[in-house]
Amino acid sequence: PTIGTALQMLRPGVETQAHRHTGSVVYYAVEGHGAMTIEDQTFAWGPGDFIALPPWARHAHANRSSTERAILFQVNDLVVLKSLGLYREIPA
Questions:
Q1: Whole-model pTM?
Q2: Scanning 36, 47, 56, 58, which has the fewest C-beta atoms within 10 Å of its C-beta?
Q3: Are 46 and 71 in contact (CB under 8 A)?
Q4: What is the spatial order of strands in the sheet that 19-21 belongs to?
Q5: Where in the chain does DSSP place strands (E)?
Q6: Measuring CA to CA, which residue among 10, 5, 56, 7 is closest to residue 36?
Q7: Domains of the chain by range and CATH?
Q8: CB within 8 A of 40, min separation 6: which ones?
């Protein structure tokens, strides 16, 4: 396999720690409302939105609701990078 997928749930009010990795990811917002900070820009998202994350970009996720969960679906190239020994991830 060369393409990976994942479903990510963000609990109400959650803000993740910023990090970076060598993989690239395309996110699709399934439900909820949130924001993704990529480098120094913050992008608000809601159901139906897509967000493209380039490799090695510092990023963090946030659920902007204090009562409802948010769900993001992602398609990524992490599988092939891990297979080739090229995947790296660090806190940013």
A1: 0.93
A2: 47
A3: no
A4: 41-45, 34-38, 59-63, 19-21, 89-91
A5: 4-10, 19-21, 25-31, 34-38, 41-45, 50-53, 59-63, 70-76, 89-91
A6: 10
A7: 4-91 (2.60.120.10)
A8: none
